[in-house]
Amino acid sequence: MWASFVSELTREIKELMNYRFNLIFANLSLVILFAGFLNYFDGSDPFVIFFMLFCWYFATHSTSMPTYILEDELLDRTLITILQSRTSIIQVLLQRSLIQVVVDTLKAIPVFTILAVVTQVKVFAYGGGTFFLLIALSYVIIFALYGVGFLFSGFVLLFKRTSSLVGVLNYYLLFFTGMTLPLEKLGVFRGLATLFPFVDFNQVIVGFMNDQIIWQAVLLILVKAAFYWGSGLLIFHFCLQKALKKGGLFSV
Amino acid sequence: MSKLTSEIGRFFALKKNYGFDAVLETVEDFIFLYGILAISAFAEKSVNVFLFALWYLGWTIINEGVAELETEIRSDQFVGLVTTDTSLWVIYLRRSAAYLVYGLLSLLLFLFLFNPYLIPELVGTVFTRRGVVVLLVHLGITLLAFVGIIALTVRFERVATMVDLFYTLSIFLSGMVTPLATKFAYSYWLVQVTSSFQAVGILAILAVILLVGCFFSQKLAVKKLSGTL
After folding, report:
1. How far is A87 from chain B (nearest CA, A)?
2. Is A249 helix (H, G, I), strand (E, B) or coil?
3. A–B: how many Cβ contacts below 8 A?
4. Contact between B145 and B61 (Cβ < 8 Å)
5. What is d(CA A183, CA A204) in angstroms, rounded to the nearest whole number?
6. CA distance A129 to chain B (A)
7. Taking CB atoms and an 8 Å limit, are B32 and A22 in contact across chains?
8. What tens digit of pLDDT does each residue of B6-52 get?
9. Which residues numbered 45-84 in B keep a CB inside 8 Å of some CB on A?
10. pLDDT at A252
11. Per-residue pLDDT at B134
12. Labelling A231: which of A28, A108, A241, B70 has CA 20 to 30 A away?
């Protein structure tokens, strides 16, 4: 298990290095976009926005990576080999998702260090403990959102190409879930925003800034995480069974 | 003219073929633009709809061109394209008209969804002497950048992320989307093009720089094209 994890991680990093210019330009674009946001929010605290953007940086992959992985496997006609092997497809997806989190962490370190330096956000303004607790909670949210990713990836098994759908979700998360724009400005999207954990995360960060822990918000994040994973695995399993019965996994 | 209309028809037929993807890509673009404009509104910085429209049209031409050419290179259709009688640059300049029509339609749809009152404001600004001059100058500069970037795509094959970097930079630093009143902003000079000789001079220098860039990137591309054939 560990050996396959390490070899897959090494392969992923080597593949990234093959496209190093793309990697640099894509991440520089994000630094500029984030710096623009941080400079633009006169009313909001840059400390809050910083952690929200940190979450979003990973969340874009949380919600889309399982879909991309399955689409690739389907396109390469290797999905059926995985299904016939002794390793379950969920285990394969979990391992590769975990690798993605590690790779994203490696990319996020320079991106957010540059961002903190350029925008002069004081990430340790409320102490190192607060910083590390917020990073830890960010990872809880990131892992929780992989449940949403599993949910959407199930549709690939039935409809073959659904990556555009998860692509739409990325910017939706950024603007309409309380990450960058306050809840009261979201209008008709307000109700939907409460389905995501960012409103609660916002409360936790503000609480930490006031030397408090909002347990209710932390609990809500955990409940939502359980809900995402529960529904994600359930729908994925349902789609897999239906696709196997239909026999549509042998061709693209 | 018929070649131009057939290029427009071809482009829309292609969009229709990948209808679901095309619609979702447009929705993704709209969400992003809606978010940026909503943030501007939240920060109480008013957006100039005319400049925003120019920015959107310019970047639609460039982004669509790069995306289409990259796809053609990856799927080996590019070889067929360079062996036709018509030069690659003429083909892509014709295609830029298709991208412009598509950009205009999606812009109107976006403005209609975002704030329908912005459409009469935009129309009112465009159909003035100043509006027409600014539009033509911007389209001229965009086409120079477009030809240069197309040439770079031919040479390096994957430039979309680099183009995306400039796209992101332009959101915050061009003054076209988020208001910016500094002399380093492109919009600062563009809006003065009918009233200031200095602005004409600055934009002429920019055009010359782009023209030189086009010349050298085309040289690189031609070298690559001779290798392709």
Report:
1. 32
2. coil
3. 82
4. no
5. 15
6. 31
7. no
8. 989 999 998 888 888 889 989 999 998 888 888 887 777 778 899 99
9. 45
10. 57
11. 95
12. A108
